[in-house]
Design goal:
With 218 residues, the chain is α/β, with parallel strands linked by helices. The chain is built from 10 helices and 5 strands, in the order βαβαβαβαβαααααα. It has a 5-stranded parallel β-sheet, sandwiched between helices. Strand 4, helix 4 and strand 5 form a beta-alpha-beta unit. It starts with 8 loop residues before the first strand and ends in a 10-residue tail after the last helix.
Length: 218
């Protein structure tokens, strides 16, 4: 399924005033872009939106007891929203923990606006977006038997992306179109997120040799 950006309603949950007030001005015109300082205010408002950008650290407002990190993502996802993590956090274990909590993707605040628009649109359409670091994590899980449902071609695309190859380079090497390569990676990302949602933190710790509690995040 594809969606047009101009038809989307988007929510932003971020404790940074510049982000909350600035993003609606920087993003292209959409049907609606609403901003909230914390998960609690967002859930109380219960807006009808197609995707929700969620920062992982929401304590800058000075409020005590706000849900953030995996707990905040879990609350948003449990209410039926498609959550896209929007963060400066790069620790893959933390990000994996938030995907396990129900997020449908991750994008970093350092990305350009076109990449952000693309990520929001993909998540709003029911897709999955993961960062290069998480692509590498997905490959480790797959190599250790965590995702046996991947096809041989999906494994080839995953391997290329984990090594920093562009979709065009992968497409040329495999004699497929760039669009086909991207579609294979989208399916891999979705299967990876499904894996995280159905396996405990202990499962991932065993696959990757992580310490107890490393997936909980902030």
């Amino acid at each position: 399924m594809t969606v047009e950006w101009s038809t989307l309603a988007v929510a932003v949950i971020d404790d940074d005033t510049v982000i909350r007030q600035g993003l609606p001005l920087l993003l292209p015109p959409a049907r609606s872009i609403r901003s909230f300082a914390d998960v609690e205010t967002f859930l109380d408002a219960a807006p009808e939106v197609d995707a929700v950008l969620v920062d992982l650290v929401l304590s800058g407002t000075g409020r005590q007891g706000v849900r953030q990190g995996a707990a905040g993502v879990r609350a948003v996802a449990a209410s039926g929203y498609r959550a896209l993590i929007y963060t400066n956090e790069h620790r893959r274990e933390v990000l994996a923990g938030c995907l396990a909590a129900g997020a449908r993707g991750v994008i970093h605040k350092a990305e350009e606006m076109p990449a952000l628009v693309s990520a929001i649109t993909a998540v709003a359409a029911g897709g999955t977006v993961i960062t290069p670091a998480l692509v590498g994590l997905a490959e480790v899980v797959e190599r250790r038997g965590g995702m046996p449902a991947l096809s041989p071609r999906q494994r080839e695309v995953l391997s290329g992306r984990a090594r920093g190859q562009s979709f065009q380079a992968i497409a040329d090497r495999l004699y497929i179109s760039r669009r086909t390569a991207e579609e294979h990676m989208n399916l891999v990302a979705a299967k990876f997120v499904d894996y995280l949602s159905t396996h405990s933190a202990a499962d991932l710790e065993r696959h990757l040799g992580l310490g107890p509690g490393d997936l909980m995040g902030p």
